[in-house]
Amino acid sequence: MDYQNKYIDLILGVSLSLQQGEALSINTSERNLEFAQIVAQKASEITLIPVSIVLIEEGIVKDVFSVTPIENELISEESLYKVLLRIEDPFLIEEFPKVPMKEIASSTVLLQAVRNLGPPQLTKVVAPWAVAPVPSLFWAKSLFQTENPVDDMWALFARLLFLDEPNFPFSYTEHLKKLNSMTKRMIQSNKKYLHIKDDKTDLYVKLVHNSYPRHKLTLLEGTRVFMPTLFNHGISMIVETTYTHGKLFSSRPFLLLGELVEEAQLVFEGGKVVSFEAKRGKKALEVALQIDEGALRIGLMSLVEEKSVIAHLPTFGSTPIDESVTSFITLGMGESNHLRELDTYGDEQELSAKTGLNTSVLKGRIPFGNNFLAVDMYDDEGDIPIMVNGNFIQ
To answer: What dotted CATH number matches 3-91+122-161?
Structure first.
C-alpha cells in the first residue's frame, strides 16, 4: 500500500486544508528533509505559490529554500496568507536529559525537554498550522525490534488514520463526522458533570464554567478550517479544579519527568490529589505533584475510544500519537481553547482567576480506561451515557 502518499494527501487536504494562493512554510530537520521535499512539491501544485522549507537543527535555522510547481504555473511569488507545517522529530527516552528529577521539575527548559511543560495559554493563532510525525527508520527502530520496523510504523499510521479502508479518504472524513457528532451531542446536553468508571477507576469531575468539549478541528477567525494533527481521536474537556473526587488508575505505562511510571493510582478529594501509589515511578509522581498547586489537580481530560490492539508503550515518541490511542487526564495545565470569549482576558493570571482554568507549569499526561470504560454526563435532571465498553455511544 502507498501509505506515504495517502498520508501526505491527508496532511495537505484535511489537516491543513491547503488552498490555492496560500504560502506554505515547512519546518524540518535533516532527518526528515526528503519527506519534507515530497510534501513541498505536492503542496506547490496546490498553492501555485513557492513552498518554503526551513531546515532546523537543535533549534537553529540552518538553511531555507523554496520548491516550485512543475506541472503548473506560479500565480505569484508570494502571498499574505500563511500556512505552517512542522515535520515532527520523535522524542526518545534515551535522549532525555540525565539529571535529577527535582532539577527537571524546577526548570522550564528541562520540563520542555521531557515533554511536561504546560504551553502558553493566550497565544493568538494567526495562521493554520499542523504537526506531522514521519515514520523514519531512526524512529521506527526505537519502537519495533523487527525485521522491517518502518513497515510496522506505517501499519500503525494506517490503523490510526484509516489508510487501509477501501473507501479512503472518505473513511477518515467519516471518522471526523462521527467525532463531531459526538462532540455536538455532549455540548447540546448542557451537562457539566462527568462520571468516569471502569474496573479500577471511579472518578467524578466537573467542567470549567463557560467551556465546551471539543476535538482538534479548529476554526481560524470563524472561516478557515484546519486541524493541528491528523491523529484526531479524542474529545477533550477542561476540568474545574476544586470538584474532582474519586480514584483514577493508569491503564498504561507513562512518562513523567523523564521517568517511567506503571500502575499508578491517584485518589482525589476536593479537586486535588490526596494520596497516590505506583508499582513503579512513585518518586516521579511525588516530585511532579510538588511543582505547584495546580500540579495536584486535573487540568484536562480527553476521551478516546480504546484501541487495545495498539502496543502498551510508555510513549510512541510523538505527542499526537500518544494522545490518540487511549483516554487520558493531564495533571496541571489545561487548554484555554476550550473557553468561550478567550480574547477578553489580559493575562494568564486573569484567565485562571475568572475561569478556573488550571495554569500550572506542569502538564503530565496519565492514560486511563480499557474495554470496560463507561462515561456518563449528568446533572440534577439525569444522566446521558457518552461511552460504554470503551466506545462512544452515538
So the answer is: 3.40.1830.10
At 124 the pLDDT is 76
Please determine, for residue 392, whether its predicted confidence score (pLDDT) is greater than 90.
yes
Q: What number of other Cβ atoms are within 10 A of residue 214's Cβ?
A: 19
Q: Which residues make Cβ contacts (< 8 Å) with residue 122, sequence separation at least 6? A: 336, 342, 345, 347, 348, 351
Helix (H) or strand (E) holding 255: strand 254-256
* Angle (nearest 5°) at CA 386 between 302 and 188: 90
At 298, list the grid cell: 486535573
Q: What is the percent of the chain with per-residue pLDDT over 70, rounded to a whole number?
A: 98
Please answer whether residues 239 and 298 qualify as being in contact, where contact means their C-beta atoms are separated by less than 8 angstroms: yes
CA distance 287 to 126: 36
Rounded to whole angstroms, the Cα distance separating 191 from 388 reads: 18
Using CA atoms of 321, 180, 304, 117 in order, give the dihedral in degrees to the nearest 10. Answer: 50
Query: Which residue ranges does the chain devote to CATH 3.40.1830.10?
Result: 3-91+122-161
pLDDT, one tens digit per residue, over 368-386 is 999 999 999 999 999 999 9
pLDDT of residue 219: 85
d(CA 354, CA 332): 17
Sign of the torsion formed by the C-alpha atoms of 220, 223, 226 and 227: positive
Alpha helices in the chain (DSSP H): 3-10, 33-47, 101-105, 108-113, 137-143, 149-161, 170-189, 282-288, 319-322, 348-355
